[in-house]
Amino acid sequence: MKKIPVKGFVRHANTTGDQHAHGLYITSWDGRPVYHVHPFSGVTSYDDGHVHQYVGLTEPAPFGVPHVHQYYTVTSVNNDHKHVIQGVTGPAIAMPRGGHIHYFEGFTTVNGMRPHRHHYQGATGNEA
């Protein structure tokens, strides 16, 4: 019986209440990549006298087919609060030298002593 090398990772799933779950993502099968992720980062809009920075990795998606990625991260703490950023990227945009990126845009969750939200937008880095 041939052993097939498999690589991947486990990631905490966003659940509510008493539920706790993990997602298993296989990233390569027999030495061939199966899924990929993208780094993303940026600065939110200036609202309520401040901005927030954010950084993260998209959820995995398959190679070689039309796809989008889900993303989730938490902003930096400014003025004693932070915001959640989450959503779904746009479709893949091919890069001239290979690979692809995705655009993303949205609004943070509402938070702060004076409740407010921030706008954010950007493009992911190339596939990883």
Automatic annotation (TrEMBL):
Database matches in InterPro entries: YmaF (IPR024307)
Domain of life where this protein originates: Bacteria
Listed name of the protein: YmaF family protein
